[in-house]
């Protein structure tokens, strides 16, 4: 069994048009791989296929393995993917604490939920801000809420689509360093879509450079 995420002769089509692949990639547990390539080549679609949330026009051949199990036939909720996107998509009508709590499994006691949320807030440097409306936070703070919401769900892999692209460079750099360290500590395989060569290098794992599929 190969621990981690394995794309095995994965090829994607959009309706009748080949989009990417066939390609192979192995991202071991605790390693962050980067997906790069020109705009429109299919980077976001690749992540959506791995997560099981691609639209009906997208078809795939090949297999997606996670820790030795083929996950490509599983419903998205069974894949246990943590997603972080450019727009962090925090729920504006929920408090910061409730946004993080949204990632927690059902069935926990109130006290346990509260303890986990407080620990996540403290880790993110947001202690005391749990009652705030997300729209009153800075971009960097919102990104940290999105990270903690993802991590409290204990994902088995992490997929990030330009999560820092909207932040200014110094902040993006600081946040990226912290997020990468935190994700490595979770020891899950991770893929990040990026246009930034520095970010791909900082990820440190394999780089998947997508080019337009021929024919
Ligand atoms: N469900 C769908 N139906 C039809 N076309 C789609 C669908 N999903 C994606 N596409 C098309 O597939 C192509 C790849 O899109 P995708 O967003 O994956 O590219 P990308 O490499 O992430 O681009 P960018 O770097 O600009 O974000 C685009 O031409 C897009 O319009």
TrEMBL record:
GO terms for molecular function: ATP binding. PANTHER family: SPERMIDINE/PUTRESCINE IMPORT ATP-BINDING PROTEIN POTA, SPERMIDINE_PUTRESCINE IMPORT ATP-BINDING PROTEIN POTA. This is ABC transporter ATP-binding protein. Keywords: ATP-binding, Nucleotide-binding, Transport. Residues 5-215 form the ABC transporter domain. The keyword Ribosomal protein does not apply. InterPro entries: AAA+_ATPase, ABC_SmlMolc_Importer, ABC_transporter-like_ATP-bd, P-loop_NTPase. PROSITE patterns: ABC_TRANSPORTER_2.
């Amino acid at each position: 069994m190969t621990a981690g995420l394995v794309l095995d002769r994965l090829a994607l089509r959009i309706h009748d048009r080949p989009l990417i692949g066939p390609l192979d990639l192995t991202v071991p547990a605790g390693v962050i791989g980067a997906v790069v390539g020109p705009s429109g080549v299919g980077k976001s679609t690749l992540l959506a296929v791995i997560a099981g949330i691609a639209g009906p026009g997208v078809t795939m051949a090949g297999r997606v393995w996670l820790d030795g199990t083929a996950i490509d036939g599983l419903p998205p909720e069974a894949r246990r993917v943590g997603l972080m996107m450019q727009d962090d998509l925090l729920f504006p009508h929920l408090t910061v604490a409730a946004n993080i709590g949204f990632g927690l499994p059902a069935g926990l006691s109130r006290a346990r939920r509260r303890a986990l949320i407080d620990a996540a807030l403290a880790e993110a440097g947001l202690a005391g801000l749990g009652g705030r409306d997300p729209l009153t936070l800075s971009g960097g703070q919102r990104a940290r809420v999105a990270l903690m919401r993802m991590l409290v769900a204990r994902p088995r892999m992490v997929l990030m689509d330009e999560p820092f692209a909207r932040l200014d460079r110094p902040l993006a750099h600081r946040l990226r360093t912290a997020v990468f360290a935190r994700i490595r500590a979770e020891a899950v395989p991770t893929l990040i879509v990026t246009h930034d060569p520095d970010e791909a290098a900082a990820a440190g794992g394999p780089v998947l450079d997508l080019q337009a599929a021929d024919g």
